[in-house]
Amino acid sequence: MSAFPERTTREEVELGSTLQPKFGPDGLIPCITQDHATGEVLMFAFMNAESLQLTLDSGKATYWSRSRSKLWMKGEESGNVQLVREVRTDCDQDVILIKVEQSGPANASCHNGYKSCFYRKLVDPKANDYVLETTTEPLFDPKQVYKK
Amino acid sequence: MSAFPERTTREEVELGSTLQPKFGPDGLIPCITQDHATGEVLMFAFMNAESLQLTLDSGKATYWSRSRSKLWMKGEESGNVQLVREVRTDCDQDVILIKVEQSGPANASCHNGYKSCFYRKLVDPKANDYVLETTTEPLFDPKQVYKK
With B101 labelled, which of A122, B42, B73, B135 sits at a CA distance of 20 to 30 A? Predict the structure, then answer.
């Protein structure tokens, strides 16, 4: 059950001024999360209607965890909360983009301790050897933060 | 059929130095495309193994069009090609992030003529009115570029 406006015409969805998000057959919409200050892409996750609404209402990024099948306010365990500074959608409104200010002890988004989940890049994309290098250092030790 | 390395252990996938991309049950992996110079998120699309391999080999962003069920080299119609400058993946390697240099006549990624598909933002996320504003101007007229 979603309070979001119904999707209307393609013209209105693509060029209009009303948020009409498209949730997939599984009830989810992809969300890209970007650092508000630097533009760095921090993570990629999914939201259902409830988590998107909670994100808007609370100003704290809240996702839907597919692995745990539950709402997941970012930082609820680690304390690394994401304060929402901007909410965007794409042309056909089937993706959400939020810009956030990382808050909390480590300023990290990734459960492996890195600021961004995208901490590895291909050394040489054309080399056909699929070798990744890690381009940054972890900001916290996951073993200390997540006691499972 | 993919030439990409098989997925091995969680440790190797998350912290290792080999690209082991996870394609979903539909054979697709989400791809975030970012402007290499500014960090602006330009678009979000999907790749299958073939389009990811073509992206690496050719250095030009190539996606899988779900609506047309075909490979789609970005810019094949509009001329606005994306030259790949960096390829990243996330912690569990189920998302690709590419940083590109937009090339071609309009330097635009969106079929509606905008540089980025994310040309609208919520005016006030907490207002609960779902009002979007367009924050940029189109760089080309889609009617002139796409003759369908």
Answer: B135
Per-residue tens of pLDDT for chain A, all 148 residues: 468 999 999 999 999 999 999 999 999 999 999 999 999 999 999 999 999 999 999 999 999 999 999 999 999 988 889 999 999 999 999 999 999 999 988 888 999 999 999 999 999 999 999 999 999 999 988 888 776 5
Alpha helical stretches, state H, B1-148:
10-15, 49-58, 142-145
What radius of gyration, in Å, describes the C-alpha atoms of chain B?
Answer: 17
* Chain A: residue whose CA lies nearest to B34: A41
Question: To which residue do tokens 């949730």 refer?
Answer: A23
Residue A92, C-beta contacts closer than 8 angstroms, at least 6 positions apart: A13, A14, A22
Give the residue extent of every domain in chain B. Answer: 10-145
Distance CA B106, CA A25 (A): 35
Do residue A119 and residue B91 have CB atoms under 8 angstroms apart? yes
Nearest CA in chain B to A16: B132
Q: What torsion do the CA atoms of A133, B12, A148, B29 make, to the nearest 10 degrees?
A: 80
- Choose the mutation target among A88, A114, A123 for the interface with B, i.e. most B CBs under 10 Å: A88
B94-143 residue pLDDT tens: 999 999 999 988 888 999 999 999 999 999 999 999 999 999 999 988 88
- Compare CB distances from B19 to A32, A91, A132 and report the shortest one's residue: A132
Contacts of A38 in chain B (CB under 8 A): 39
Burial degree of A89 (CB within 10 A; 0-12, 13-18, 19+): buried
Q: Across chain A, how many H-helices and E-strands are there?
A: 3, 8
Q: Which homologous superfamily does the CATH classification assign to the domain defined by A10-145? A: Phosphoribosyl-AMP cyclohydrolase (3.10.20.810)
